[in-house]
Write a structure and sequence with these properties.
Elements: H1 12-22, E1 31-36, H2 56-61, E2 66-73, E3 76-83, E4 93-96, E5 98-107, E6 112-114, H3 119-123, E7 131-133, E8 136-138, H4 140-148, H5 150-153, E9 161-164, E10 168-169, E11 173-177, E12 182-186, E13 193-198, H6 199-212, E14 220-226, E15 228-231, E16 240-242, E17 244-249, E18 256-263, H7 277-288, E19 295-299, E20 310-312, E21 322-326, E22 329-335, H8 340-344
Parallel strand pairs: 4-9, 5-10, 5-11, 5-14, 13-15, 14-18
Antiparallel strand pairs: 1-21, 2-3, 5-6, 7-8, 12-13, 15-16, 17-18, 19-20, 21-22
Length: about 375
């Protein structure tokens, strides 16, 4: 299971101290606070993973800037594709156009959740704005990529960057959620009402929007919800809570990538999905596996056991709920991410300061399972 946020706000300060002890270099990293955020009650904090096997020809036809390489582990070769350019090849800057699409989700009982209310907090966060990180003053996603391949960045590619462009905010789109596929519930952590939607119904609606909104493959659409989570199956707390996902589809004959994320109020689901934490998780995963076709040696997380033993290059999943803030952005919670070397079982790590995660939460290679 992921780290659990303590049961009451009375013990919140103790949680900060405990996590900070595990990542004692956090203050040096310009992280002003770290803590674990997790669901409370019958829900389980989670992110869902889609996996595709796009052909090389299909990937060649997409206009999203990306690069590919491979590594060998256990005598087996693993191919992977990431956004931007190869950091071993020099100081190139990639800038990815982004469109934020606020969703107004209306449920059959009359409840409505308006994603436009979370646009400003999202676009003014370190997801899009420069902030101080250990790998430079830059955007969050770029900071993670630079830190992940620091051996190259610090020597041959000091001006290497993968940046998000100034986001275009699209007009809000209203989606009517049928009773069979969506419900509301009282969140036990905060007492607030949240929306829950079956992902098996929801993702086809998003893919339809990709076509109707005429997105091109060089653009990253981010679909933004407010206090709404997804469920794995029937919309209930017992099947909740998915805070975000990234996916790719070839419905338009080229691989189109996209992200859906919740932006939740403080305290909902014990802090899981709070403000931009879910988006930070999904953005880092999109940068490292945009087409959802990367595989790595089997791994299992010591703190997010809900993912079991799997072989996907999903850099956020092993650290669900471990979040931090940076100077100047105290209301923007960002997730710790596992670095490439943790998955590729590289020792020593090629990341900054030989780390295996941004905060240093993991000090050893992924466990073989």
């Amino acid at each position: 299971m992921s780290r659990q946020k303590l049961l009451t706000r009375l013990f919140a300060a103790l949680a900060v101290v405990m996590i900070a002890a595990l990542v004692c270099t956090a203050l040096v990293m310009n992280a002003t606070q770290t803590h674990a955020a997790g669901g409370k009650g019958k829900s389980t904090p989670r992110f869902v993973h889609f996996h595709h096997n796009f052909s090389d020809a299909s990937l060649a036809s997409t206009s999203l800037k990306h690069w590919s390489s491979s590594f060998v582990s256990g005598g087996k070769t693993f191919k992977y594709t990431m956004v931007g350019t190869n950091p071993t090849k020099g100081s190139h800057t990639s800038k990815i156009p982004v469109t934020v699409v606020p969703l107004i989700l209306k449920f059959s009982n009359g409840a409505s959740f308006d994603g436009t209310q979370k646009v400003a907090g999202t676009t003014q966060s370190p997801i899009f704005q420069s902030a101080p990180f250990i790998s430079g003053t830059t955007q969050y996603g770029d900071a993670i990529q630079r830190a992940e391949f620091w051996n190259s960045v610090s020597t041959t590619s000091p001006n290497y960057h993968v940046l998000l462009g100034t986001p275009t905010v699209a007009p809000a789109i209203t989606i009517q959620v049928p009773a069979a596929d969506g419900a509301t519930a009282k969140d036990s952590s905060s007492g607030k009402t949240i929306g829950i939607i079956d992902i098996n119904w929801f993702d086809p609606q998003i893919q339809t929007l990709l076509v109707s909104q005429h997105f091109t493959s060089n653009v990253l659409p981010i679909f933004l919800s407010n206090n709404v989570y997804l469920s794995s199956g029937a919309p209930s707390i017992s099947n909740c809570c998915i805070g975000g996902y990234h996916n790719a589809t070839s419905a338009q004959k080229t691989a189109q990538t996209y992200i859906w994320t919740t932006n939740a109020d403080a305290g909902i689901e014990g802090g899981f999905g709070e403000d931009v934490s879910a988006l930070s998780h999904e953005l880092a995963e999109w940068l490292n596996d945009p087409f959802t076709n990367n595989t790595v040696p089997n791994w299992i997380s010591p703190i997010a056991q809900q993912y079991g033993c799997n072989n996907f290059l999903e850099v956020g999943d092993p650290l669900v709920g471990v979040v931090f803030t940076v100077t100047g952005f105290s209301s923007s919670h960002l997730q710790d991410e596992a670095f490439f070397s943790w998955f590729a079982r590289q020792s020593p790590s090629i990341a900054i300061n030989g780390k295996y995660t941004y905060l240093g939460t993991f000090t050893h290679l992924s466990k073989v399972c």
